[in-house]
Design goal:
The chain is α/β, with parallel strands linked by helices and 565 residues long. 33% of the residues lie in helices and 17% in strands. It has 17 helices and 20 strands. The strands form 6 sheets. Strands 14-13-12-15-18-20-19 form a 7-stranded mixed β-sheet, with helices on both faces. The chain is globular, with a radius of gyration of 28 Å.
């Protein structure tokens, strides 16, 4: 009676009601209203607000988001109550509500880092094989469901950190069985088995999904939209989730269908306001808000990438001259979905080679630029020699990342960024006739740090490591046509011998590719990798075979200086 004051509540009154009652913990014992079992919803809603109220008043933003989350839960309960009243029933049971939520949630699009395009195409028509889980779900129960191939959608209103604890507990419970191996098994086969083990493990962990609302905002006086992620409806969800998801997924959010109502597969769903509206939203849902499902593991990766992007990575290679040792340092800010240049031993090699001879400023091209670290290093070190640079990449996230870094370093006026394709990694337009290449596309120096290991790739991050489209062969074959001067222009190729150590590439194959591409080797510089795993100072990775870990210690990074024959 004190809560409702003898009147029927309305959705508009819920925020003020929750704010007015957060100091009344006795409300957690609320039992029912009009026959509805409201205890679970009230407890979930009020717990978030009570927890926020105990914090300092400085955490005003966090409190407002907690209250908004609780309000959404109350609106959901209100919709179910009104629907039941219209039907003349005594109430909607928790079981019925869960079934309706499951049918709707299964049709939400799934955004995953393991898809290089956008939301999974097969999810547009076929619902996910998923179940709802919450804070009461045991890790063993969740593991059994994952082993059956089911996705686990974390229920709105549950605790974010409990979801993280569940994911941590699942790591050891859903590990695939390591294949049997013998001394006669080749390193190539061991490597493939280890990759498959890692892929299966990650695939299972990616079945824990969170619900994330995405809002579409029209730019003032323009026919374009901005897309931002709203705070997920979970207690103690980090406040920076809005920035994390928005900056990580970027243009992929545009692929969401904001006008389509989720279909739960019920032929009569149009007459059911609960089934025809996403959970945690009122019946007349905002047409500018779309809901999606994102693996919790990917969200944690986005948080990590957000920290890299916020703090930056300091690049400071050393180069020795005859008089003194010079040090060049500058920050690089990696983006989500772009390979982080944590291995930087090859940067020292780049500063040991002189630039091609030229009477005036030279032009360079960084193929597969990634974060833009190679182009930025050369332009910082040779400020007076390099007049113009072209940076290319097939990954749109890498292009955005490199552009951001060049702007921060004050180099954007000297760099032209080009998004390319697998068919032509040097220019935006695919030139079928190599004699018809524009002069402005030709440069004095081409630098490339390609993927080192042949193998399939499921994401943009994988493509930075695994050569899945014969990148190396295509690069060497096309590079000769983009060199400006036959006598002085050069190609610098950075490559590790890890593929040869793992028996994934014959030892003579690189030499054959160079010779077939009308190029010749001028000199080769070598260095030992400095990362701990290459020196045997770091424990082998989870699922890594002992022979693979030992093979890493023999790795050598080489810089090939090439020129036309």
């Amino acid at each position: 009676n004190q809560f409702f004051d003898g009147k029927d509540p309305t959705p508009e009154s819920f925020p003020s009601m929750i704010a007015a009652t957060i100091r009344r913990p006795w409300l957690r014992a609320a039992t029912s209203w009009r026959g509805h079992d409201t205890q679970q919803l009230l407890v979930a809603a009020l717990e978030g607000s009570c927890r926020a109220a105990k914090r300092s008043r400085a955490a005003c933003t966090s409190f407002q988001q907690e209250r908004q989350c609780a309000s959404q839960l109350m609106v959901q309960w209100w919709d179910e109550a009104q629907f039941s009243a219209k039907k003349g029933g005594k109430g909607v049971s928790n079981t019925q509500s869960n079934e309706k939520q499951e049918r709707v949630l299964k049709c939400f699009p799934l955004l995953s880092n393991h898809e290089m395009d956008t939301a999974r195409k097969d999810q547009q028509d076929a619902p996910l094989d998923a179940i709802l889980v919450d804070d009461t779900t045991k890790a063993n129960t969740a593991a059994r469901q994952i082993q059956k191939g089911k996705y686990l959608i974390y229920r709105a209103g549950a605790d974010y950190y409990n979801a993280r604890q569940l994911l941590t507990a699942l790591k050891s419970r859903v590990m695939p069985t390591l294949p049997k191996r013998s001394a006669q098994t080749s390193l190539a086969q061991l490597w493939q088995e280890q990759r498959e083990w890692t892929r299966q493990h990650a695939q299972k962990l990616n079945k824990v999904l969170l619900q994330v609302p995405i809002k579409r905002i029209q730019v003032k006086n323009k026919a374009i939209y901005q897309y931002i992620a709203l705070t997920p409806p979970y207690r103690r969800a980090p406040d920076h989730f809005t920035n994390v998801v928005s900056e990580s997924l970027g243009s992929r959010l545009e692929q969401l269908d904001f006008d389509k109502e989720p279909n739960d597969g019920d032929t009569d769903s149009s007459s059911d306001p609960v089934q025809s509206s996403p959970p945690n939203q009122p019946q007349d849902k905002d047409k500018n808000i779309a809901w999606c499902l994102i693996p919790l593991r990917d969200l944690l990766g986005m948080v990590g990438a957000h920290e890299w992007r916020k703090k930056g990575l300091w690049i400071e290679p050393q180069t020795t001259s005859s008089s003194k040792t010079k040090s060049i340092g500058f920050p690089i800010y990696p983006h989500y979905g772009v390979f982080v240049p944590t291995r930087r031993e090859y940067l020292d090699l780049l500063l040991q080679l002189p630039l091609p001879p030229s009477k005036g400023p030279i032009s360079i091209m960084d193929v597969g630029t990634g974060t833009g670290v190679i182009a930025a290093l050369l332009m910082q070190h040779h400020k007076d020699r390099i007049g113009h640079a072209i940076a290319t990449d097939i990954n749109p996230q890498a292009i955005a990342c490199a552009q951001d870094n060049f702007q921060r370093l004050g180099l954007s006026h000297k760099v032209h960024l080009v998004q390319t394709t697998d068919a032509n990694m040097f220019a935006a337009d695919s030139h079928d006739d190599t004699t018809d290449i524009r002069n402005e596309d030709k440069v004095d120096l081409i630098v490339c740090n390609p993927a080192w290991i042949p193998g399939s790739a499921d994401s943009w991050m994988d493509r930075a490591v695994y050569d899945s489209h014969d990148f190396l062969a295509t690069f060497l074959e096309q590079a000769q046509h983009y060199l400006k001067d036959r006598e002085t222009s050069q190609v610098w190729l950075i490559l590790s011998n890890m593929a040869e150590i793992l028996e994934l590439r014959p030892a003579h194959e690189l030499e054959d590719l160079i010779e077939a591409s009308n190029l010749q080797v001028v000199q080769v510089l070598e260095t030992q990798p400095r990362h701990p795993r290459a020196r045997g100072q770091k424990k082998k990775a989870l699922g890594e075979f002992e022979r693979i870990a030992s093979a890493r210690e023999a790795e050598i990074t080489r810089l090939y200086q090439l020129r036309l024959r």
